[in-house]
Write a structure and sequence with these properties.
This protein has 233 residues and is α/β, with parallel strands linked by helices. The chain is built from 9 helices and 14 strands. Strand 3 and strand 4 form a beta hairpin.
């Protein structure tokens, strides 16, 4: 079994090396993990830099393509990419249908709100109230969390995840449901925002890499490289 996995992994890597590039998909709307930079005309962020390094370790160039949270699973199963990154949570539901890497960055669900409203939110119960409007993005684990945990709050979805913080500032909703790392980023970027519950997230998880179906045999090799990244700091 191990021998078969090694052979299929070697074959997948050989196909990618013959192509000369690793095709990496991202929704590209998740600061600071992966976002589109108008200045450079390309993608930037923690996951983008990690993907560049990963491609270099595999001996090929990185090519980034657009995906979306709503179609990420379909794109993976159809092998529209080799790997996908960009703040993707490692969940049991995703692992049922997709090949995922080991987790590489711990995160948890929390909220962003306007700074003047921070005192309103001392616990999750303060969020799940009829007088609170929660905004979330389509297709990802934020939508799943909102659907399964919020019973009383008013809910509004937003297709463009990166626009939600500005819509919170503008008063279109009271709270953004997001991950701790994104909340920390936006509280530094916008002085009008606060993350009052960031030190006590509602759950715990990790970000991971998603593999396209044909590149799935690469998972052990990629996990090995990720472990080396951890060792190197």
């Amino acid at each position: 079994m191990v021998c078969t996995e090694k052979k299929s992994g070697s074959a997948a890597l050989e196909r990618i090396k013959l192509r000369g590039k690793l095709v990496i998909a991202t929704p590209g709307d998740y600061c600071p993990m992966a976002f589109h930079s108008e200045l450079s005309g390309g993608y930037r962020g923690f996951d983008i830099e990690m993907a560049w390094l990963l491609a270099a370790r595999l001996g090929v160039k990185a090519e980034f393509v657009q995906s979306s949270w709503s179609f990420l699973e379909d794109d993976a199963l159809a092998s529209h990419f080799d790997l996908a990154v960009g703040g993707i949570s490692r969940t049991a539901e995703r692992a049922e249908d997709l090949t995922l890497s080991d987790g590489y960055l711990p995160v948890g669900k929390t909220i962003l709100c306007r700074k003047e409203d921070a005192a309103r939110f001392k616990s999750f119960a303060d969020v799940d109230r009829p007088d609170v409007c929660v905004m979330y993005n389509d297709g990802g684990t934020n939508e799943l969390f909102v659907g399964s945990h919020l019973k009383q709050a008013k809910l509004r979805h937003c297709v463009e995840n990166e626009m939600i913080p500005l819509r919170i500032i503008a008063g279109e909703a009271d709270v953004m449901l997001t991950e701790t790392i994104e909340a920390a980023f936006y509280t530094r970027k916008y002085s009008q925002l606060a993350a009052p519950l960031i030190k006590s997230p509602f759950n715990k998880g990790e970000f991971c890499i998603v593999f396209g179906a044909k590149a799935a045999p690469l998972a052990p090799k990629v996990n090995e490289i990720l472990q080396k990244f951890r060792t190197d700091g």
